[in-house]
Amino acid sequence: MIATMVYKLTKDATPEQLIENGLGDHYANHDKALFYQNASGVPWTATYIQAKGDPIADLYEDIAAEEKARATYQWLIDMTDDVDLQDGLKFLREREVIHSLRFREAVEILKEERDRKKFF
């Protein structure tokens, strides 16, 4: 969704405007196509996905990822005065909060199950 927001904000920009605003390298490589990268220009890679194989450890990784995304959305909200863009970002930020809460609930359920004696 963020890449789509960036696309909508830049779709009518001229190459000169993109260059003036620090997007010349991106334009030279990708035109106005969506290309997933961080703010420093490092492309997205599957190595960003962390998995241990233990459900509780993996859920804690998920919680951390949701909280990092929440913080990023807040910083983006703080960087713009475009109300429509802020509304979309606020929706995404709140979605991360809910995801984090659900993952935390799942951790507690798994901990209860892990500690419960099982009789067969």
UniProtKB/TrEMBL annotation:
Keyword Metal-binding on entry: yes
Entry binding sites for Mn(2+) 1: H99
Amino acids binding Mn(2+) 2: E66
Alphabetically ordered keywords of this record: Manganese, Metal-binding
Gene3D superfamilies cross-referenced by the UniProt entry: 1.20.1260.10
SUPFAM superfamilies according to UniProt: Ferritin-like
UniProt GO MF annotations: metal ion binding
Keyword Manganese: yes
The protein, known as: Spore coat peptide assembly protein CotJC
Species name: Brevibacillus borstelensis AK1
